[in-house]
Amino acid sequence: MADLSSLIASLRNARAVDLSQTLEEHMPSYPTHSKYFHDLWGSYWHGGRSLTYQLVMNEHNGTHVDAPAHFISDAKPHAHVTIENVPLTRLIGRGVRMVCREFKEGDYVSKAFLADWEGKHGALQGGDIVVFDFGWAAHWALRPNEKRYLTDWPGVSMEAAEFLLEKQVAAIGVDTLSPDPPAALASKPIHPVVLERQMLIIENLCNLDALPDFFLFLALPLKIRGGSGSPIRAIAVI
């Protein structure tokens, strides 16, 4: 009980940074994904007792996590894991922020960059959640101003992804639409490679500039039966 009390006290005294974009209509989303709608269902303005809205959304709207099943079909049953079967501990752990703001449109983070980062900041560990701070969240904007966010963002190279798999990282996160830039999505994306190995992908993060090198990362997906992913409320505890 003393350890639990100490943990609670530490969390209460810590600073929490919200890493999730606000869910709202007209926010950016991948062009082939359905959109987000927040529709009034009942209200005291119309004589009801309470205010309620109906949500209509894609599993991959806003800040969300991709489950392995997003890219891995049931032809590979060992790897076809839907979101309700993803262990919650995959999204709770040591967060690692990598500042990648020198990378421009269409650039890729390399394995050499990761190795150099480790030499300066410390080794990556199994179970880490590694987030790439490209500064791209600054382009997040509602329609019709979302085009910059949706155009030729930077990403993570295949060799870097394989390096992170060797390190047994639990998840990677980006403040872009995808860790695969458009050119990679059209040719050789890292999505199926990392998801088959159960390394999760978190997309559309924000406020990464407020983070130190290491922090406590916490996020929980919705328990969607058969889900290919889920919106998350991601936070950093510092």
- Strand % is 15-25%
* Strands, count: 13
How many structural domains are formed by the residues?
A: 1
Distance between the termini: 23 Å
Q: SS-based structural class?
A: alpha/beta
Instruction: Please write the CATH class name.
Output: Alpha Beta
The CATH architecture is 3-Layer(bba) Sandwich
* CATH fold descriptor: Glucose Oxidase, domain 1
What's the mean pLDDT score? 97
Low-confidence sequence ranges: none
- The total of helices stands at 5
N-to-C order of helices and strands: HEEEEEEHEEHEHHEEEE
The strand order across the widest sheet is 1-13-11-5-7-9-10-4-12
Give the biggest beta sheet.
9 strands, mixed
Using only CA atoms, what is the Rg?
Answer: 18 Å
What name goes with the CATH superfamily?
Putative cyclase
**Helix amount, in percent?**
10-25%
Tell the overall outline: globular
Structure description:
This protein has helices at 2-13, 111-121, 158-166, 182-185, 191-196, and strands at residues 16-18, 37-42, 52-56, 64-66, 92-99, 108-109, 129-133, 155-156, 171-174, 200-203, 214-218, 229-231, 235-237. The protein has 238 residues and is α/β, with parallel strands linked by helices. It has one domain (2-237): Glucose Oxidase, domain 1 (3-Layer(bba) Sandwich). Strands 1-13-11-5-7-9-10-4-12 form a nine-stranded mixed sheet. The protein has a two-stranded antiparallel sheet with strand order 2-3. Strands 6-8 form a two-stranded parallel sheet. The longest helix has 12 residues, at 2-13. It starts with a helix and ends with a strand.
